[in-house]
Specification:
By secondary structure, the protein is α/β, with parallel strands linked by helices. It contains 17 helices and twelve strands. It has a five-stranded parallel beta sheet with strand order 2-3-4-1-5, with helices on both faces. A four-stranded mixed beta sheet has the order 9-10-11-12. The longest helix is centred in the middle third of the chain and has 24 residues. The mean pLDDT is about 90.
Length: about 400
């Protein structure tokens, strides 16, 4: 089965919403190369609609005038008896796009024009700025995260070992039998464009080289705590902690690297803690480590970081879609890998992944926060594979 034959669950979500009466624009958002456009086109193929697709990926096509022309073309292409669908890809590349889209959408609403609209983009922060500035109440988000283990098994026949190294980028799966080509593809088609195009579109970055260096260093430290002071000591021309924190936030919005805050009931302590860095996909750790698959997964310490990163990335994806918070916890020598919270429910998650760890962390956390649900992944509660396949409830 190829990636074009396999349909992700979000395809059905898009299809269902396009069958509903015109009420909201649908915004498909997610990191670069996670299959947003493919999912949209698969959904359209299942619908009896006339559609217009346009991508703003090329610089020459990123003007407001082009946006208006494409919208008017979609208005005029309506076929008798069919709904009309307009798909605008990489919309964030058009400056001031949101106010123009708002005006055009509202014109159609007043005229009774049943034009349904899907927008997509790989710069979530830039999209969000436009959505909150002009389009409040006019859209719904559909998230396209990195592919899960289950999806990679269904589409590419991955094993758990392959997923831990090659991760959830569908285009890269073509090269899983050639690590050199896979590595080149990851760097040239995913990481470099993310850092040099997507991130730089979000806001002005005074030190692009520092941003790139921060990504590679941070991804190599995935699933580990690292203080801002230590980051400053290892980065060239790093400036101050505010610069590092702001660049780390940009990498988070680009869907490649995030700093997890330490869990504490007091919000001030949570926000001031040193971050535990976490990649959004295990393949990013593999690339940043510059290690071959056998070397990375055969070493118990490195394998531990990879498994914890895969578990963390899975939790990240679900937290964005399901609305729960994700932290880690440490007090003295006691540590818990992940803490998730949704409303009054709280779960502490410990990952047993090959590295030697004290068993005192979970016990100390439960004593400090009674009523929490304890979950051991890689232990008696669930295997890492079952957890990544979504077969383990996160809350009790």
């Amino acid at each position: 089965m190829t990636k074009t034959e396999f349909k992700r669950p979000l395809v059905d979500t898009i299809t269902t919403r396009m069958l509903e009466p015109r009420r909201f624009m649908q915004i498909v958002v997610g990191p670069r190369q996670t299959g947003k456009t493919t999912a949209i086109l698969q959904a359209v193929a299942q619908l009896d609609v006339s559609s217009t697709y346009f991508s703003f990926d090329e610089e020459k096509n990123t003007s407001i005038e082009v946006l208006r022309d494409v919208w008017n073309e979609a208005r005029q292409s309506k076929e008798e008896g069919k709904n009309t669908l307009l798909i605008l890809d990489e919309i964030q590349r058009v400056k001031q796009w949101s106010s123009t889209v708002k005006a055009l959408w509202d014109e159609d609403a007043r005229a009774g024009n049943d034009l349904k609209v899907i927008l997509s983009g790989s710069s979530p922060l830039l999209l969000r700025k436009g959505l909150t500035e002009s389009l409040a109440g006019r859209f719904e988000l559909i998230r396209s995260p990195h592919w899960s283990l289950w999806e990679c098994i269904q589409a590419f026949g991955y094993t758990l070992e392959e997923y831990l190294f090659f991760g959830g980028y569908p285009g890269a799966a073509l090269f899983k039998d050639d690590e050199t080509r896979w590595s080149s593809y990851m760097r040239e088609a995913i990481i470099e464009p993310t850092l040099t195009k997507d991130v730089l579109l979000m806001e002005e970055v005074r030190k692009p080289a520092l941003l790139t260096e921060l990504f590679y260093l941070g991804a190599a430290y995935s699933a580990q705590e690292i203080s801002y002071r230590k980051l400053l000591g290892q980065l060239q021309d790093a400036g101050n902690t505010d610069t590092i924190a702001s660049y780390l936030k940009l990498l988070e919005h680009a869907g490649v690297l995030r700093g997890l805050f330490k869990y504490d009931e007091k919000l001030i302590k949570t926000r001031s803690s040193s971050p535990r860095l976490l990649v959004f996909d295990p393949s990013l750790l593999a690339i940043a480590s510059a290690r071959k698959r056998e070397e990375l997964l055969g070493d118990s310490a490195w394998r531990g970081h990879v498994v914890e990163s895969a578990i963390g990335a899975y939790l990240l994806a679900r937290s964005l879609g399901e609305g729960f918070e994700l932290f880690w916890w440490r007090e003295g020598n006691n540590e818990v890998d992940f803490v998730i919270r949704k409303g009054t429910k709280r779960t502490a998650i410990e990952v047993k992944s090959g590295r030697l760890k004290s068993r005192n962390g979970m016990r100390a956390f439960l004593e400090k926060y009674p009523g929490s649900y304890a979950l051991i992944v890689g232990g008696p509660d669930a295997s890492a594979e079952d957890f990544l396949l979504g077969e383990v409830p996160l809350f009790q």
